Every structure is written in structure tokens, then in C-alpha cells.
Amino acid sequence: MTTTFLVPDMTCDHCEKTVRGALAEALPGSSVNIDLAAHTVTVAGDAAKAEDAIRDVGYSPERAA
Question: With contact defined as beta carbons under 8 Å apart, do 54 and 63 qualify?
């Protein structure tokens, strides 16, 4: 299952690297696509784990409709 999150407080390359690293640790091998300009993260795998991983590194993900 693929889930897209809006992460409005993800604003720079460092933010992207931090979020990508957290997701790689929480969901090894999962596909992650980050659109920094749109502040979105699309991830394949367990949505709850992904959301927790993003929150754990200090960001505020919201599931996109």
C-alpha cells in the first residue's frame, strides 16, 4: 500500500535527508518519494510506521486525501 503525507515543516535538503533516513530505518527496502517543493512524502509500506517515523524525527505529517 502506498500512502502520501503532507509534511509542511519539511522545507530544505537537510529535512529531506532526515525524513528519508528515518523511513529507511523504519521500513527497510520500502519505496520513498519526496517532493520537497510540494512538501509531500509518498511511501510504500505500513502507513502507521511511516507516520511515526516522520514524527519521531520532529516533523508533522498529515495523511493526504
Answer: no
pLDDT in tens, 16-45: 999 999 999 999 999 999 999 999 999 999
Output the pTM of the full model.
0.94
Would you list the DSSP string of 41-52? EEEES-HHHHHH
40's enclosing H/E stretch is strand 40-44
For 43-63, what is the mean pLDDT?
Answer: 97
Phi, psi torsion values for 16, nearest 5 degrees:
-60, -45
Count CA within 13 A, CB hemisphere, residue 31.
Answer: 7
The runs of H, that is alpha helices, within the chain are 13-26, 47-56
Q: Residue 5's Cα: distance from chain center in Å?
A: 7
